[in-house]
Design a protein that fits this description.
The chain is α+β, with helices and mostly antiparallel strands. It is built from 5 helices and 11 strands.
Length: 299
């Protein structure tokens, strides 16, 4: 098993996700033979999960239903500016009648942490109802034998001085998190209804962005150069959204959730752009109230 790169990288970062003495993970004893298991034993992971990650910033984990003998997952860690810190591309595969997790890391620019043909690997120790314990890596339901309260993911790591500790992520179902924020699309019944709902949310987010952009431009009616700069930034933003959210759509192309994932990407970027406009152009250095209220996230 290969923890070295992952562990050293974790050690260098100040985490706010729970880091505790080893108690959630299990280690295979010497000579351990992985028990019989199939992807049915980890089917509870299927779906989208969200919680706090590094430095208290949002982290998301998604698992697709099995494709043949493999489940594909992705972990996304945001940075302090709402951008992408890094991702993990993950497989759970049926190997020799048991299960094995393989993982590779990627920076925000898609450059990899591991060498081209290298990856981190965890072999199965045991399974329980709504739980799978790999050697140094745990996936389990947060409470009981269903995912209503989310899932817990824990990874054992070795830090400086050979100290063993765990990094624990508590993820809530993304739909529940959205409902808690008042997401109007949380309870839609069909894929078509959900897509239409998210399109409506995107339209509202873009209308608000246009309102804040117009207010920013109206603040400087006699500065033609600044007007051009703001317009150029808006054009660059539009190109970025097309590229970034197009990539999200391509990643989820094989799933019915592809439209929601791409629309969610567009909505969140629209919200970030609106907040940037507000912060840069609609506030004052002194205690004067802003020209428009600080925008809250749409989703």
């Amino acid at each position: 098993m290969r923890y070295t790169l992952f562990a050293l990288t974790l050690f260098l970062l100040p985490f706010c996700a729970a880091q505790v003495e080893a108690q959630e993970t299990r280690i295979a004893p010497e000579g351990h033979v992985p028990p019989a298991a199939t992807l049915d034993d980890v089917a509870f992971l299927t779906g989208q999960w969200s919680g706090d990650g590094i430095q208290g910033q949002p982290a998301h984990e998604s698992w697709l239903p099995p494709t043949g003998n493999t489940m594909v997952g992705i972990f996304v860690q945001q940075d302090g500016d709402g951008g992408l810190m890094f991702t993990e591309h993950m497989y759970i595969r049926e190997v020799d009648g048991s299960l094995q997790v393989s993982l590779k890391h990627f920076n925000g620019d898609l450059t990899g942490w591991e060498e081209r043909d290298e990856m981190l690997t965890w072999r199965l120790v045991s399974t329980e109802p709504c739980a799978a314990y790999f050697s140094g890596l745990t996936y389990r339901c947060a409470n009981g034998e269903n995912t209503d309260d989310g899932i817990l993911v824990a990874v054992r790591m070795r830090s400086e001085g050979d100290e063993i500790s765990e990094l624990v992520f508590n993820f809530a179902p993304m739909a529940d998190e959205a409902a808690a924020r008042g997401n109007p699309c949380a309870d839609t019944a069909t894929t078509i209804d959900t897509n239409e709902c998210y399109m409506g949310v995107l339209e509202a987010a873009e209308e608000r962005r246009a309102e804040y952009l117009a207010a920013a431009q109206a603040r400087y009616p006699n500065d033609a150069e600044l007007q051009q700069d703001i317009a150029a930034a808006n054009a660059a933003y539009s190109e970025y959204v097309d590229a970034e959210c197009g990539a999200v759509y391509d990643y989820w192309i094989s799933g019915s959730i592809r439209n929601v994932m791409a629309l969610t990407c567009q909505i969140r970027l629209a919200d970030q752009a609106t907040h940037n406009i507000w912060r840069n152009w609609l506030t004052y250095m002194d205690s004067s109230p802003p020209i428009l209220p600080e925008p809250e996230p749409t989703l």
